[in-house]
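User: For a benchmark we're assembling, each entry needs the component sequences followed by a predicted structure for the full assembly. Here are entry 17's components. Please fill in the structure.
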Amino acid sequence: MARIAILSYIKRKSLVHELTGTTKLIFFIAWSVASMVTYDTRVLICMLLISVVVFKVSKIKIRDISIVLGLAAVFLLMNNLFVYLFSPEYGVGLYESRTVLFTIAGPYTVTLQQLFYHLNMTMKVICVVPVALLFIACTDPSEFAASLASIGVSYRVGYSVSLALRYIPDVQREYHNISQAQQARGIDLSGKDKLLTRMKNSVAILLPLILSSLNRIETVSNAMELRGFGKKKKRTWYAKRPMKRNDWLTIGFVLLILAVDLVVTFWDGSRYYNPFL
Amino acid sequence: MKKLSVKSVVAIGIGAALFFVLGKISIPTPVPNTYISLQYAIQAVFATLFGPIAGLLIGFIGHTLIDATSYGPWWSWIIASAFAGLVIGIATLKLDINDGLDVKKIIHFNVSQIVAHLLAWGLVASCLDILIYSEPIEKVFAQGLVAGIANMLTTGIVGTLLLIAYAKTVVKKGSLNKED
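Assistant: Structure for entry 17:
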């Protein structure tokens, strides 16, 4: 099995990289909330444009994240397809009008309202993608736990997250080693075997992985206990950076967006922007 | 809230790393675009061994990392993953694997995980999908049902086999006999 291609921290010099982890975390959370709440086309278009601009500023290249973009495209396509297959008339109910463009077969008509609904749903997902990618690609993992702690998450939980980030490569390597060893012994996980056999075979890989992970948990937690982890209510972080002017500006900006988003979305009593009425 | 022990902190971290790595590995099924999600078996085992908070956070951290590194977070399903871990952890609080495993305990584990996945994918994920993404009810429940059943089967088969194998490696209390 080849190495799993995943997105990780990409070190560059840019405005986005210079912001503290805390700022980026707050931006990411506020942005997610804003995109989840709204279904207003105008707001979504603005958010989409802003996220593209932020992406440009970050100096992360499309090439760096092309795999991720491909996956996102496939995911969105499947989702749209399923929504359409299950209820081709959903947009009609939502926007309370019906403009038929053409009919494919049986109940599967293409209406303007349905297309508009799909457009909105897609934008809702897409406008988070660049921000989420940037958050991963521009935040130093060692700074991440400090950011979590500074927005009020218990430092124990913050430490769990940073342990997870620290041990992902190790676990990955271990999985790879075990699976190669088991494949050499004739255990197959690919499509050639029956599903049930494949599940049983996976246990042969997972069990050594779990046992070695439990050992690792023992070792790491002993080491942390010896160093007095969790003794005090608070702790300081080596990777924490002080907030600068740009950080406050960014936080102010994203909170403003969130506020505008909430006002525009709810002030006429409906989440949806309806151009058909 | 009770403070997390050092061991739980580490177990959550490494559990989430396992959840992430297994979530990225796809074992194909005959249904196109559907994969066996081995991570839920691991999550269930860790929730049983380390409790509900561990189950919750492993699901939440692991699933967020999977989504954020592949196509942006789909929050409703992330919350459902966390919820499944929490329920399994609560339901298996009284289940002690360290002094051996019998049929009763295996049934206990499986009933807990079936209830947890039923609630998580049949109720939590689908309701949040409707609330957040305003998707049609039929699609959401069909999807939730398929995902829920797949996760139940994976956890039921792989998780149970893992627990049995794990219990065998633990030295039981009073396993030493005095020599006559």
